[in-house]
Write a structure and sequence with these properties.
By secondary structure, the chain is α+β, with helices and mostly antiparallel strands. The chain has a single domain, classed as 2-Layer Sandwich (Alpha-D-Glucose-1,6-Bisphosphate, Chain A, domain 4), CATH 3.30.530. The chain is built from 3 helices and 7 strands. The protein is globular and about 45 Å long. InterPro entries: PRELI/MSF1_dom, Slowmo/Ups. It holds the Pfam family PRELI. This is Protein slowmo homolog 1 isoform X1.
Length: 180
């Protein structure tokens, strides 16, 4: 098992960053996410937005890794649940793969909150737990997955930055996200 964590500070208010985060996939800068389906989206009695999505992803595992894992499959599905709390100004997103689970599990958690000392900037804390199951080279494969996640995380942060810079005319209000 490998645990990977990172933190990033966006120089924009929480509301702006959250709007960009909700629109980050699919995106040509990160072709690993092939598609996104909203399975359920609703507001709870406390005004929090709950979203359940299914992501179709391409892990792009090298041939040697596929041989070690004993699979040719590289397209995977990921279930994602997010909660946006506009009162607390917090977005928490948890995702996990639902294919290849007999070989690999990737559990990821992202939290977006205003910086405690400067509410005009937003802190993203990201953590992933990667476990390769039943392999003698599991530590090596877990390390490869961590490096891949780190590279993809940099791309996603760039995507969000570009979405923020696209300007207010391209941003949606939080309540309109219900109808995506």
């Amino acid at each position: 098992m490998k645990i990977w964590t990172t933190e990033h500070v966006f120089s924009y208010p929480w509301e702006t960053v959250i709007k960009a985060a909700m629109r980050k996939y699919p995106n040509p800068m990160n072709p690993n996410v092939l598609g996104v389906d909203v399975l359920d989206r609703n507001l709870d009695s406390e005004g929090r937005l709950h979203s359940h999505r299914l992501l179709s992803t391409e892990w792009g595992l090298p041939g040697i890794v596929r041989a070690i894992l004993g699979t040719n499959r590289t397209q995977t599905y990921v279930k994602e649940h997010s909660i946006v709390d506009p009162e607390e100004k917090k977005m928490e997103l948890c995702s996990t793969n639902i294919t290849l689970t007999n070989l690999i599990s990737v559990d990821e958690r992202l939290v977006y909150k205003p910086h405690p000392e400067d509410p005009e900037v937003t802190v993203l804390t990201q953590e992933a737990i990667i476990t390769v199951k039943g392999m003698s080279l599991s530590s090596y494969l877990e390390g490869m997955m961590v490096r891949s996640m780190s590279a993809n995380a940099r791309k996603v942060k760039q995507i969000q930055q570009l979405l923020v810079l696209a300007g207010p005319g391209r941003q949606q209000s939080l309540s309109s996200l219900l109808y995506l």
